[in-house]
Write a structure and sequence with these properties.
The complex is a heterodimer of chains A (346) and B (628). Chain A is of the alpha/beta class and 346 residues long. Chain A folds into two domains: 12-238 and 277-313, Rossmann fold, CATH 3.40.50.970; 240-275, no CATH class. Helices cover 29% and strands 19% of the residues of chain A. Chain A is built from eleven helices and 14 strands. Chain A has helices at 3-6, 32-47, 82-92, 104-110, 112-121, 166-172, 186-198, 225-231, 281-288, 311-322, 330-335; strands at residues 54-58, 73-76, 97-103, 125-131, 134-135, 141-142, 177-182, 203-208, 232-234, 242-243, 249-254, 257-262, 298-305, 340-342. An eight-stranded mixed beta sheet of chain A has the order 2-1-3-4-8-7-13-9, with helices on both faces. A three-stranded antiparallel beta sheet of chain A has the order 10-11-12. A two-stranded antiparallel sheet of chain A has the order 5-6. In chain A, α2 (32-47) crosses α7 (186-198) and α6 runs antiparallel to α9 (281-288). With 628 residues, chain B is of the alpha/beta class. A seven-stranded mixed beta sheet of chain B has the order 11-10-12-13-15-14-20, sandwiched between helices. In chain B, strands 3-4-2-5-6-7 form a six-stranded mixed beta sheet, sandwiched between helices. A four-stranded parallel beta sheet of chain B has the order 19-18-21-22, with helices on one face. In chain B, β6, α3 and β7 form a beta-alpha-beta unit. In chain B, α6 (173-184) crosses α8 (204-223). Classes of the chains: A alpha/beta (346), B alpha/beta (628). β14 of chain A pairs antiparallel with β9 (242-248) of chain B.
Chain lengths: 346, 628
């Protein structure tokens, strides 16, 4: 063995089992959260990060119980405040892999202010936003992503608040990564979470997650084999926007307006279609707005990914610059820069 | 060198022990700068010093009005001074509003130096004087020594060939005043000259113009007949030799946090949101990057404290600073820090409340909130600083308690301490208490499982930070099972954990000093028990009462929760206890409740500190009452 060899630390091969904590998940049977947990447990060993260097931070809500079920470090905080807690942790310990588990109420309602500011600052956090369009833990009140008209215990006549568009909010806040996934498509979800983990900066992954108790089938339009193909579009880098049962429909840009075209007709071919480019913020913004237009399929995949310096790196660089002539001592601190000497008593 | 003792004419120089001066003018007149420069010169000269700025919450309130008056008060002395002076001996009034707002606090027979341009018709009207009335001429100031000086005109004359615009010239008028005061108190000009050259490195002509104005003021004193009868004054320096620096309370808090982090071997993280009068702590720490300090200006008060909790969880010395409204917003997160049992320093610089209240004025009305302002049973240590320099020692102590007892600590200051300043003999690192974080060491496979909420004999749990192998664990705001830290809704466990958390805080009393008597007999008629920024006024008043032969003592609390173990015993040594507070009576409730005694409450809720005369009067009244 040479000296060099000792510097290579071989991580033991870990499996999903190694990332399961000794606590039994207390989510309802059939809840989409189980699927997200399962995918995370599968994903974490693939990242090559030792469990002691991973921290899951959460707020309050069903989804925020996530840290308890993973055998990493975890903190379950207070409602809406997972993002600033994770930011403080990441800024002081940049070497850690910091994840945030949050929900539509936690992140977008009570934590809305932290949501927008975290995104613009861009600390390297992986944010998993479980969006079930309902408050589950408090038993079925409408959330800031609930659809207009939804009848809940607090909206007996139907919701009248216009819902947030998570993708548009993320991009509008200066976020550097937005992707959407779906609890029922585990393999795809895992690939998206992997992309999020690889992104340096705040990665926002919105997961459409079914609440079988209080908002069952909210995402049914994207779930059943019958309508899934026509209602969803899986976007891939450098690929044309194609969807439909026989991959026979496409999206074309008419100026800034997305238009669905029928590829079976000879008029259009895939070369006429919108080619996805996740580095293009304007296209990402249009994709984000698909959700507002019923005639358009709902996009899944990475909408937007931008390379931008992270908050903790920018701060570390400033500190490095301030310390370029060496670190300052406690003596110097106490003496200060404007001290003066009094020479004699009288 | 300007020989400040020599004059062109023979003017008497009278020795005085101490003088209190107020520089007052419009917010735009530069009075804070003038006061600060004067204080720096006095401090480096070696006299004792205490300063207090007093300014409106608006950056620029309407010019010329009472609302727009900005003042800087200082007392300098051959003896130790603990307050800026109950009343001032000298008042510089740049305009009529400044005179009107402050005259009540000028000693009878005191000196007024009035900038005559500020007493023109327009200014008199803005200050609310009746038409035709001018205090400089109508005899209403006959009990004072008034020096009307055409400050603006003289400054303009001095700088007419400076090449400065008339606006820039007019802005130098405060330097004229500064020079005049240096003459009056036989102080050197060199310190201010150095400062001006340093400040205007790139515009030397600007420095030179300011210096010219200052010298014009100095020589005006020398050459005019105006001050012939008054003469000049000399306050001889008495400070022990050594290295000193002048600090405000807010600066001292910032230095203490940095020092504590260095001493503990931890990185300092401050999560904060700007709020008057606490912001300078964030500003000062933002400039301490060379010490590795990380500051995070959060989007709101909640993110300020929560980011600090995140940093503390990661193993940093974490702190947040705020004032009343901000502390209210942080209370939910404080509950989290209590149940997580992690170290956190919360500095609350109190101001007049409730709500926005009096943002720039001091008050001690957050004591109840600090002690009780949380949901659930959430005890935490509360300590209070008593002087600008003590802000250093108290904040440092807050950090020590937080780290060694794994708890959030509230450190109380107020708007008076925050902005006041005094000289501080530079502290040696060796004199600072050790701060020993108790990190949980890594665990190897096969070792006993890690128990996050296992406690030592002081009921303190260990600090297990991410990155430590084998300690992966989950904690949070839900009630924890004793030792394992797993979520638990068990009724008996909740009661046990509630009591353990309280016991942990109560046991801090074992590691803090016993309460001492600051001044006066160990047994006697009256004990004046204070806390926080009332220290200077109480100390001065008790000193005077003792000189007058009264049986009175002064004790000042730093530790309010838990109390020092001997406090009850001390209170029992006096026939009466009097508690002065800048609130509607808060500590008095706690003392009554804890020790079942009936102390006298003496309160002031005016957004201004006590002065020593008020406290002295109260002491003598109470003692007379006690005797009859």
């Amino acid at each position: 063995m040479t000296d060099n060899d000792t510097t290579i630390k071989v991580l033991p091969v870990l499996t999903a089992k190694d990332f399961a904590s000794d606590q039994e998940p207390k989510w309802c049977p059939g809840c989409g959260d189980h699927s997200v947990l399962q995918q995370l447990k599968q994903l974490l060993p693939e990242l090559g990060v030792a469990p002691e260097n991973i921290v899951f931070v959460s707020g309050i809500g069903c989804s925020s119980r996530l840290p308890y079920y993973l055998a990493t470090y975890g903190v379950h905080g207070i409602h809406g405040r997972a993002l600033p807690m994770a930011t403080g942790l990441k800024v002081s310990r940049p070497e850690l892999s910091v994840w945030v588990g949050t929900g539509d109420g936690d992140a977008l309602s009570i934590g809305g202010n932290h949501f927008i500011h975290t995104l613009r600052r861009n600390p390297d956090l992986n944010v998993v936003l479980f969006n079930n369009e309902i408050y589950g833990l408090t038993k079925g009140q409408y959330s800031p992503t609930s659809k207009i008209g939804l009848r809940t215990v607090t909206s007996p006549s139907g919701v009248i608040d216009h819902p947030f568009n998570t993708a548009a909010l993320t991009i509008g806040s200066g976020g550097t990564f937005f992707a959407r996934a779906f609890d029922r498509d585990g393999k795809f979800l895992r690939s998206i979470l992997h992309r999020a983990a690889m992104h340096r900066g705040t990665s926002l992954v919105e997961i459409y997650q079914n609440c079988p108790i209080f908002n069952n089938a909210a995402f049914e339009a994207y779930a059943t084999p019958d309508n899934k193909a026509d209602n969803t579009i899986y976007i891939e880098q450098d690929k044309p926007l194609v969807f439909g049962k026989g991959k026979n429909r496409g999206i074309m840009l008419d100026g800034f307006k997305p238009v669905v075209v029928d590829l079976d007709k000879e008029e259009f071919s895939t070369s006429d279609l919108w080619i996805h480019d996740e580095r293009d913020i304007n296209k990402a913004s249009i994709l984000a707005r698909f959700a507002d237009e019923e005639s358009l399929p709902r996009p899944f995949g990475v909408f937007y990914a931008e390379e931008r310096v992270t908050y903790e790196d920018a701060l570390a660089a400033q500190i490095k610059e301030a310390q370029k002539n060496g670190c300052w001592t406690l003596e110097e601190l106490l003496k200060g820069e404007n001290s003066y000497e009094i020479k004699s008593a009288t | 060198m300007t020989d400040t003792k020599k004059t062109t004419r023979q003017v008497n120089v009278t020795s005085k022990t101490s003088v209190s001066v107020l520089f007052a003018g419009d917010s735009g007149d530069g009075m804070q700068l003038t006061g600060t420069q004067f204080a720096n010169t006095v401090a480096t000269h070696g006299t004792e010093l205490n300063t207090f700025p007093n300014f409106p919450s608006e950056i620029r309130a309407p010019a010329g009005t009472i609302a727009g008056v900005s003042g800087f008060q200082l007392q300098f002395s051959s003896k130790p001074v603990y307050t800026p002076g109950a009343r001032f001996d000298v008042m510089v009034a740049m305009n009529s509003a400044a005179l009107k707002a402050n005259l009540k606090n000028l000693h009878r027979g005191g000196i007024i130096i009035a900038g005559t341009e500020g007493f023109d018709e327009k200014n008199l009207k803005l200050a609310g004087y009746p038409e035709g009335a001018n205090p400089l001429h109508d005899g209403s100031l006959e009990n004072y020594i008034v020096f009307p000086v055409p400050i603006l005109q003289l400054t303009r004359e001095a700088l007419k060939e400076s090449g400065l615009s008339s606006k820039e010239i007019d802005r130098c008028k405060n330097m004229f005043v500064l020079g005049l005061l240096y003459w009056l108190y036989t102080l050197p000009l060199e310190g201010t000259m150095e400062t001006l050259y340093a400040k205007f490195q790139k515009n030397v002509w600007m420095a030179e113009a300011n210096i010219k104005a200052m010298k014009a003021g100095y020589f005006f004193g020398d050459e005019t007949e105006l001050f012939a009868n008054l003469g000049r004054f000399d306050i001889s320096p008495q400070k022990q030799h050594g290295i000193y620096r002048r600090v405000t309370g807010n600066e001292a808090c910032a230095i203490a946090l940095t020092a504590a982090s260095k001493k503990a071997g931890l990185e300092l993280f401050l999560g904060s949101y700007p709020i008057t009068p606490a912001t300078e702590i964030l500003q000062t720490l933002a400039k301490k990057k060379k010490y590795g300090v990380k500051t995070f200006q959060a989007e709101d008060e909640i993110a300020g404290i929560v980011s600090s909790i995140g940093a503390a969880y990661g193993g940093a010395l974490a702190a947040t600073n705020t004032s009343g409204p901000g502390l209210a917003l942080k209370t939910e997160a404080l509950g989290l820090a209590v149940i997580l049992e992690i170290p956190l320093v919360v500095i609350n610089v109190q101001r007049g409340g409730p709500s926005t209240g009096l943002p720039t004025k001091p008050e001690q009305s957050d004591l109840f909130m600090a002690l009780y302002g949380r949901h659930g049973e959430a005890p935490l240590p509360v300590i209070a600083a008593c002087s600008p320099v003590d802000c250093f020692y108290t904040t440092y102590e807050a950090a020590r308690i937080a780290v060694e007892h794994m708890t959030p600590v509230i450190c109380l200051s107020d708007g008076y301490l925050a902005l006041s300043s005094e000289p501080w003999k530079v502290e040696s690192p060796d004199n600072l208490a050790e701060i020993k974080p108790r990190f949980q060491p890594a665990r190897e496979p096969g070792d006993a499982p890690y128990l996050p909420y296992k406690r030592d004999e002081r009921q303190v749990r260990s600090w297990a930070i991410p990155g430590t192998k084998g300690l992966e664990h989950r904690i949070g705001g839900l009630e924890k099972q004793h030792e394992t830290g797993n979520v638990s809704h068990d009724p008996e466990n909740h009661e046990l954990m509630t009591k353990l958390r309280a016991e942990k805080i109560a046991r801090i009393a074992d590691s803090i000093p016993l309460q001492g008597i600051d001044n006066g007999p160990l047994k006697g008629d009256l004990l004046v028990l204070g806390w926080g920024s009332t220290y200077g006024a109480i100390k001065t008043a008790v000193e005077q009462a003792l000189e007058q032969g009264y049986s009175v003592a002064h004790a000042h609390l730093r530790y309010i929760h838990p109390f020092p173990k001997n406090l009850g015993e001390i209170l029992g040594n006096y026939k009466q206890v009097m508690i002065p507070e800048l609130n509607n009576g808060q500590l008095v409730h706690i003392i009554r409740d804890t020790f079942l005694i009936a102390p006298k409450s003496y309160t002031k809720v005016q957004g201004v500190p006590f002065n020593e005369m008020e406290i002295l009067t109260k002491i003598t009244d109470l003692l007379k009452e006690l005797k009859s």
